[in-house]
Structures are given as C-alpha cells and as structure tokens.
Amino acid sequence: MMYFSLISLGVGLAVMIAGRRLWQMWQIHKLRRSLTTANELIVFTPDLVANLPPPVQRYLLHAIAPGTPLANAVQLDMQGSFKTNINKPWLPLKARQWMTALSGFVWQAKIGKPQLQFIGADSYCNRQGRVHFDLWGAIPLVDHHSDEISRSSLGRLAIEMVWLPSALLPHNGVTWHALSEHHICAEWTMDDEPICLQLTIDNQGRLQHAELSRWNEQIHGYSRFGSSFVSERTFNGITIPTQVAAGWNVDSPDYHEFFRAVVHDAKFSTTV
User: Fold this and answer.
1) Which pLDDT value is given to residue 6?
2) Greatest distance between any 2 Cα atoms in the chain
3) In whole angstroms, what separates CA 98 from the centre of its chain?
4) 146-179 pLDDT, tens per residue?
5) Beta-carbon count within 10 A of 78 CB
C-alpha cells in the first residue's frame, strides 16, 4: 500500500510541475503577443543618417549595412552567468529574449544548475514591468510587478536598444549628439520617461560601452547603469555586440556587476 501511495504522490507532483510549466509558458506567450511593432518596410541608406554628427554616423553605418531592411524586432539567444545578489555566487544562465523597437521586451531565462534552477521571465510590455520566476518552473518564488519595477524595466529596455540599432535612427524620434569623437548620446522619450543613452565607440564605430541613469528599486532612486562589450557579430547586415557584462554604479567603487552573457544568435524581423 505504501508503495502505491508513493507512486500516486510522484505522479501527482509530476502533473503539478507539468501544469505549472505549461501555465508559465502560456503567460510568456501572452506577453510576447502583446509586444507591438510597426510593419512598415524601410531599407537602410546612408541618407537616413546624413544630417547626424560624424561620430554618430560612424556608429550607425557600422551597425547597419546599406541596403539592409530596418528591423522592428529581434529575437536573441544567449548564455552566460548571473548573480541574484551582490554577495551570491555566479550562476549559469541560458535565455531567449524578444524585443521590439522602443516598445517592450520579454526575457525568458533559466538560471542555475538543474538541481536548483530558477525558470521564468523578466518583461516590460504595455508600460508594465514584471519579474516572475519559479523554482524548477513549478514552485513560485518571485512575482514582482509595481511602478518601480516598471520604471527599472523601461531603463533596461532603453540600454538594450543597442541590440536593435535600427530603433535608434532619427525617424523613430531619437535625437543624437556627439560629445566627442568617441562618445555619443541618443535622447528620446519612451512611455513619458526621458532617456539619455550614452555610448562609447572606437575609430571604426564599434560599440564598446553603453550607460544611462536607470531606476534602481533597491534604493528607490536612479543609479548609473552600464554595459561593456568586447566582441561583436553581424547578423544579416546588422552588427551588434555579442559579449556583454552589465552592472549598477558604473565608474564607482560601488560597481556591482551581475550579468555576463554571450549572444550566439540574433534573428531580426519587421514583426515579433
């Protein structure tokens, strides 16, 4: 009798886990469906950036090859490591991200080793940010959604637009400034939030660093948030950084790096 009870318990747990994972996948699918994009097909030409400062032209002409259809969305596959807290060890990370131009993102991730793995998503859709992770995709752990989470998630979306450089072209409402030959700044307003994204580029226009003021819900205020890049790759005419390290309080003794990843595939399109 005990044997059959254990079998029944095991089957019940397996069904519960499978059901929870299916529910989570459906939630992520709904978030992806809520991402919106323009469907207008525009092909990149140097004329689109001809009136911009020379350092800005150097960056955009390096990032987008002439004749490339301008993407409104990208799907990224990445692997790396992640820290859940400044005092915690690095955990292995595998993730897929969907992102649309100046609109939203869904980051679906597995963090940790199989014996203790967090499965879930970080997202910003329809002006709402959410962080939702389950242990093994079955036991609820984190489900945060608030005005502070939304503001922080919007900042993440803004800095990650370097993975969708066509979104940063002037016809999308982005104003560019050259601070020097190697430092440029993109400004726009996204969901009523003013954005000032500062980029560091080299002599060829390759992206080396990006940073901005991002809302930090831990301190209930803005902190300097930055990403550094050491390699890049071209996918169908669009060149993006593919090795990234990111953290809070850049250029400070309190710098906290918590994210390292390599993007090994990127698919650009005019729709999600």
Assistant:
1) 47
2) 80
3) 8
4) 999 999 999 999 999 999 999 999 999 999 999 9
5) 23
What are the E-state strand segments in the chain? 73-82, 91-100, 104-111, 118-125, 128-135, 139-144, 175-178, 183-190, 193-201, 207-216, 221-235, 238-248, 256-269
Spatial separation of the C-alpha atoms in residues 168 and 60, rounded to whole Å: 9
Which tokens in the block code for residue 263? Answer: 């993007």
- Report the DSSP pairing between strands 175-178 and 193-201: unpaired
φ, ψ of residue 226 to 5 degrees: the values are: -145, 160
What does 41-102 look like in DSSP terms, one character per residue? --B--GGGGTTS-HHHHHHHHHHB-TTPBPPSEEEEEEEEEE-SSTTSPPEEEEEEEEEETT
> Which residues are 231's β-sheet partners?
243
Q: Is 63 exposed, middle or buried (0-12, 13-18, 19+ CB in 10 A)?
A: buried
Of 199, 206, 121, residue with least CA distance to 158: 199
Query: Is the model more confident about 26 or about 60?
Result: 60
CB atoms within 10 A of CB 92: 14
pLDDT tens per residue, range 94-132? 999 999 998 999 999 999 999 999 999 999 999 999 999
Q: What is the pTM of this model?
A: 0.88
Q: Which of 58, 65, 61 has its CA nearest to residue 184?
A: 58
> Percent of the chain beyond pLDDT 90?
78
pLDDT over threshold 60, residue 14:
no
Distance CA 68, CA 169 (A): 13
Q: Report whether 256 contacts 86 (CB < 8 A).
A: yes
